[in-house]
Design brief:
CATH architecture: Alpha-Beta Complex
Number of helices: 2
Number of strands: 8
Mean pLDDT: 91
Helix content: 10-25%
CATH superfamily: Nucleoside Triphosphate Pyrophosphohydrolase
CATH topology: Nucleoside Triphosphate Pyrophosphohydrolase
Strand order of the largest sheet: 5-1-7-6
Order of helices and strands: EEEEEHEEEH
Length: 158
């Protein structure tokens, strides 16, 4: 079985009771809200990754104000009919960020198609990936070990 490791960095940006999110298509094509951020490029520092990704996906320049924690998950999946299974291990570094400049805009020709602020009270009603819940729990509880106790996804792809 092929193994794949993906390391990514994301930011929780809360302003005036609202959370900054980006929208991305799920595996089946339906839109779901995600935390802004994404995969590290080879040789890139995670902090630089989150700053770059937020600019790409939202148009904002952010200042990282803290490290909230790390989420690690693993699942096996197949892509396509004749493909071998892949043992995917995702490591997601979650920072807290503060918008310091830029203008809110949507990403063009990227992994997301919309960026928006959402009331924190409305987030539970959004179609969203598990990482949004993990990140909010890290932001609210700030556990010393940097791990949030959120149940694993029922369906791979969170």
């Amino acid at each position: 079985m092929r193994q794949k490791l993906r390391v990514a960095a994301y930011a929780v940006c809360v302003r005036d009771g609202q959370l900054l999110l980006a929208r991305s298509p799920a595996a089946d094509g339906t839109p779901e809200w995600v935390l802004p951020g994404g995969g590290m490029e080879h040789g890139e520092d995670p902090l630089d990754t989150v700053v770059r990704e937020l600019d790409e996906e939202t148009g904002y320049r952010v200042e990282v104000t803290g490290l909230l924690g790390i989420d690690s998950f693993r699942h096996t999946f197949r892509r396509g009919v004749l493909r071998r299974p892949v043992d995917h291990h995702g490591v997601r570094i979650v920072y807290e960020g503060r918008v310091v400049g830029g203008e809110l805009r949507n990403e063009v020709d990227g992994s997301t198609d919309l960026a928006a602020w959402h009331d924190l009270t409305a987030v539970p009603g959004l179609a969203r990936v598990r990482l949004v819940d993990v990140a909010l729990k890290l932001w609210q509880e700030r556990p010393l070990d940097g791990r949030a106790s959120v149940p694993p996804p029922a369906v791979p792809g969170a």
